[in-house]
Design a protein that fits this description.
- It contains no helices and eleven strands.
- It is mostly beta strands.
- The strands form two sheets. Strands 2, 4, 5, 6, 9, 10 and 11 form a seven-stranded mixed beta sheet that branches.
């Protein structure tokens, strides 16, 4: 079973940027769809973005135009570039693949 490890979270001021990484323990070449989710305090986990192994991406309306999802199959790693961050982006961000979740990485955006 694939194991996922996120990194890159932290504290940033509004308008700043962060880049999250999700390293997989196995080859992700055959994983059709991977994604990023987030969960803010007191809220349900929500989808942020997904990407197929062909590179097709989907974004939630709340992050469209600010976040970019990508994957490097050769490095077994998925990324989330987050620009123009807002306080409402504050959440724990989780990496997802079929039947696998990472442990999450905290992103905090101060106003």
């Amino acid at each position: 079973q694939v194991q996922l490890v996120e990194s890159g979270g932290g504290l940033v001021q509004a308008g700043g940027s962060l880049r999250l990484s999700c390293a997989a323990s196995v080859s992700i070449f055959r994983i059709i769809t991977m994604g990023w989710y987030r969960q803010a305090p007191g809220k349900q986990r929500e989808l942020v973005a997904t990407i197929t192994n062909g590179g097709s991406a989907y974004y939630a309306d709340s992050v469209k135009g600010r976040f970019t999802i990508s994957r490097d199959n050769a490095k077994n790693t998925m990324y989330l570039q987050m620009n123009s961050l807002k306080p409402e982006d504050t959440a724990v961000y989780y990496c997802n693949a079929p039947m696998a979740w990472g442990q999450g990485t905290q992103v905090t955006v101060s106003s």
